[in-house]
Structures are given as C-alpha cells and as structure tokens.
Write a structure and sequence with these properties.
Blueprint: E1 2-7, E2 12-19, E3 24-31, H1 33-37, H2 44-66, E4 75-81, H3 85-102, E5 106-110, H4 111-122, E6 129-134, E7 139-146, E8 149-155, H5 161-171, H6 178-186, H7 215-229, H8 235-241, H9 244-272, H10 274-277, E9 286-290, H11 297-309, E10 313-315, H12 326-338
Parallel strand pairs: 1-4, 4-5, 6-9, 9-10
Antiparallel strand pairs: 1-2, 2-3, 6-7, 7-8
Helix pairs in contact: 2-3, 4-12, 5-6, 5-7, 6-9, 9-11
The structure holds 5'-O-[(R)-(carboxyoxy)(hydroxy)phosphoryl]adenosine (KG4) and zinc ion.
Length: 355
C-alpha cells in the first residue's frame, strides 16, 4: 500500500510518499523560512500564496524521487488542520483533487496526529505509549492508546513551547525560527548564570500537575534583559548593550529551565496520574517526544536521562521528521487506510482541531 501525503499547515510545503512497510520513498520539503525571515515570524497570507505557487511542483518532485506514477498511489492524504487556514486549504484541496481524479481514497489528517505517530513510522513502536508533543503551536502530554484514541493529560495554559523559544530568540535579535538558534547559542553559554522561574511548579499549583505555562518564563527573560539594558525593553538596545556571551548565557539558562519544566511535568504524570497509578492498565514502556521542538538535542539528552531513570525508553524521530514534513501525513494516511478510515471529500478544513 502506498500513500501520498501533503503538508501545508504552516511554513513548509511538503509532499511525501510512504508505503506500509515504513519505507519513505520520497519526502520533499520546500521551506518558506526565507520568505518570512524578514518579518520575524510567519505571515499567513504570504504562506498560503507560496504554498499555492509551489505545491504542484513539490508533488511532481515527490513522484520523481519515488520513481512512481499517480496510478500507483493507493490513497491521498493531506493535513486538514490545525494550522493557518489559508495554507491548510491549499494542501487539502490538492489532496481532494488527486483523490477525485485517480479515484482513490482521501484521508483527512490532523497535523498533531502526524507528529504523534511519526515514531511508529521510524520505530517498531506499539500502542500504548506516553508522548510529549512540543511544536510551534502546541505543548501537550498525551497517552496514545490506539489509532484515533488519544488521551490528552496535560497542556500549556498559555504559550506553546516552540512559541516560547521563538519569542525569546526574537528578544535576543536571533533570526526566525528561533528554536534552533537558541539551541546553537546555548552551547557557548553558562546554563546556571540566570535563574528563571518555572511557572506552575514554583507556585506549587497542585490543580495543574501535568500542565505547562511558558508566558511567565518569557517575561522573566525580558526583565533580565531590561535589568542589563537599564531601561524598558527595546530590540535596538539589545544589540548595543547585550554581549554575545550574555545572549548565550540567557539561551542556555532558558533552555535548562525548559528542560527542568518538561521533566517535572513528566515525573508528575508518572507519580500521580491515574493511568500510571494503576499498574495493571499501564503497560507503557515508551516515551515519545514529537513536534518541532523535539529537534532539540539538549532536551532529547535530558529526556533520555529521565526516561532511563524511569524505566522508559525514549523515542525521538530523526531530525528531518521532527519539524513539519509530508512523511508524517502520509504515514497517518497509511494507518487510517489500513483500518479503512476513509474521509469524505466534503471534509471541512479546521484552523483548530483537537486530537
Ligand atoms: O512542528 P513544527 O515544525 O511546526 C508546528 O507544527 O508548529 O515546530 C516548529 C517549532 C518552532 O517554534 C521552532 O522554533 C521549534 O519548533 N524548533 C525548535 C528546534 N527546532 C525547531 N525549538 C527548539 N530547538 C530546536 N532545535
Ligand atoms: Zn508541526
């Protein structure tokens, strides 16, 4: 069985072809980073237009790379949300059109499910498993029980984790997207130089043992910068008054705090969540980290140590499959098609779509 998957929910136009033996026959990714860089973030209208301009070329390139024809494809899957609605519509419409022309099933894919199930494409991973989904738009802890059965047990109450990385990077005048920049700079920094708060944890908020909050952390970084600058925050003054070493120390301290927060929340889940208290029902041996932020080697290292101590195995997809890609969308297509979960051609795109 072969599925062609289309991903256009944010700033990557990506098309992949994947088979049910977990072979990625093609995974073409056309990044829009250069387009949005000068604005410091994704501009939705530009994103949708760019997807429209390139998507058919990316589809044809994927077929060429895989060396197969449209007729050999058994199903067409496309991200139908959550994401930038104009961008989602471009990829979704292509998927529906191809499905109509070639008379093959259409599979409407939830982008988050794509991230969540990537580890089943790259590893021999069985349900159930615990997953930390950290991307530009989300930060959630999930128990993946079976295909389509996902229990969300914790989430951010304000910013997503990728968003926090991007905002801190923006304050430091680092180019978009900020996550990889912070990680790079942090390598030269002292992670103990600045002590940043861990919202929800330091406040000992026992109603929210499994949730996240990053907004206060971002504000604390801004305050620290203001202390050094000596006046109200201003991007121009950052470059004048903040040395590269201080930027590195801030990046490292921020990243360390993020690591502490993630581990604290996961530890709480293992200690206090019903599912893990009941040893009979919890047959979970694997912890999956998924979504764009899972490309962060420092966090993977921290989570890997945590997992080892907790008798869990950490599974983190290869770098290229952490950030947005068509392979994860094609793979969920394979999983759905295998289970005959086909979607209607009038499936509506969704800017928001819970798992
Ligand atoms: O999953 P993704 O590609 O798109 C969404 O679904 O949102 O995630 C993008 C996010 C961005 O916020 C980006 O800064 C972050 O993932 N990211 C990273 C790293 N690589 C990407 N954050 C921290 N460290 C990284 N190495
Ligand atoms: Zn994503």
């Amino acid at each position: 069985m072969i599925v062609l998957g289309i991903e256009t929910s944010c700033d990557e136009s990506s098309v992949a072809i994947v088979d049910d033996n977990k072979n990625i026959l093609a995974n073409e990714i056309f990044s829009q980073i250069d387009l949005h860089k000068i604005y410091g973030g994704v501009v939705p209208e530009l994103s949708a237009r760019s997807h429209l301009e390139v998507i058919d070329k990316v589809i044809l390139q994927a077929l060429k790379t895989a060396n197969i024809s449209f007729e050999q494809i058994d199903g067409f899957s496309a991200t139908c949300g959550p994401g930038l609605i104009g961008s989602v519509i471009v990829g979704m419409t292509c998927g529906k059109a191809l499905s109509t022309i070639y008379q093959k099933p259409f599979l409407a894919i939830n982008h988050l499910e794509g991230h969540l199930l990537t580890a089943r494409l790259t590893n021999d991973l069985k349900f159930p498993y615990l997953a930390l989904l950290v991307s530009g738009g989300h930060c959630q802890i999930i128990i993946a029980k079976s295909l389509g059965n996902y229990q969300k047990i914790g989430e951010t109450i304000d910013d997503a984790l990728g968003e926090a990385f991007d905002k801190v990077a923006q304050m430091l005048n680092l180019p978009y997207p900020g996550g990889p920049q912070i990680e790079k700079l942090a390598k030269m920094g002292d992670e103990n130089k600045f002590k940043f708060p861990r919202p929800l944890i330091d406040a000992k908020n026992h109603d929210r043992l499994f949730d996240f909050s990053f907004s206060g952390l971002k504000t604390a970084v801004r305050r620290e910068l203001e202390k050094i600058i000596g006046e109200e925050f201003n991007n121009k003054l950052v470059d004048e008054k903040i040395s590269m070493q201080t930027k590195a120390d801030i990046s490292a301290s921020f990243q360390k705090t993020v690591g502490d927060i993630l581990i604290n929340r996961l530890q709480n889940v293992l200690n206090f969540h019903e599912y893990f208290k009941n040893k009979n029902t919890s047959s979970i041996n694997n912890l999956v980290i998924a979504g764009g932020v899972s490309a962060n080697k420092y966090l993977i290292e921290r989570l890997s140590n945590f997992a080892n101590k907790s008798d869990l195995q950490l599974i983190s997809p290869p770098l290229k499959l952490c950030t947005d890609n068509g392979a994860m969308i094609a793979w969920v297509g394979i999983e759905k098609l295998t289970n005959n979960l086909i979607d209607d051609l009038n499936f509506a795109p969704k800017a928001r779509w819970n798992l």
